[in-house]
Amino acid sequence: MEIPTLKLYAEEYEKIRLVLESLSERSSAISASLISRTGQELAFHGDKEALDRDSISSLAAGSLAATLGLAHFLGEEEFERVYHLGKKNSVVMSPVGKLALLLVVLPNKQPPMALVKNLGRTVLLLRDLLDRGNARFVQDDSTSAALDSLGL
Questions:
Q1: Which residues pair with 137 in a beta bridge?
Q2: Model's pTM, two decimal places?
Q3: Under the phi-then-psi rule, with left for phi > 0, alpha for psi from -120 to 50, and beta for the rest, what region is 75?
Q4: Confidence (pLDDT) at 121
């Protein structure tokens, strides 16, 4: 099954990057990323040298997919946020529409609950930017069929 590719134009990318920058600064995050649910990083703000961004993007998408499966098994559509708390760093993930996720990496000194206040609004801003029609999906007939089979 082919998954659609999200195509962002420069103007939308810059708006998303500014939203991520604002969230990072308000929450003292190491980084904030918008990632497609296929694991492709769409936009990033933070310390580019501190993390293996490709691996983290792929693993975050896989983790969110597994969590989505768990949510369905428990009778939920999806979970609004997923937290992973570590000794050195913590991670907060939140779905952004049907095809993207927000990933925020925080130093352990920063409690993730401080982020919750800003996260909901940030997810809404990102979802709005993706849904405006300026972010397009590159589709062909097989992609349309794949979306239909996923209920998207």
A1: 6
A2: 0.76
A3: left
A4: 72
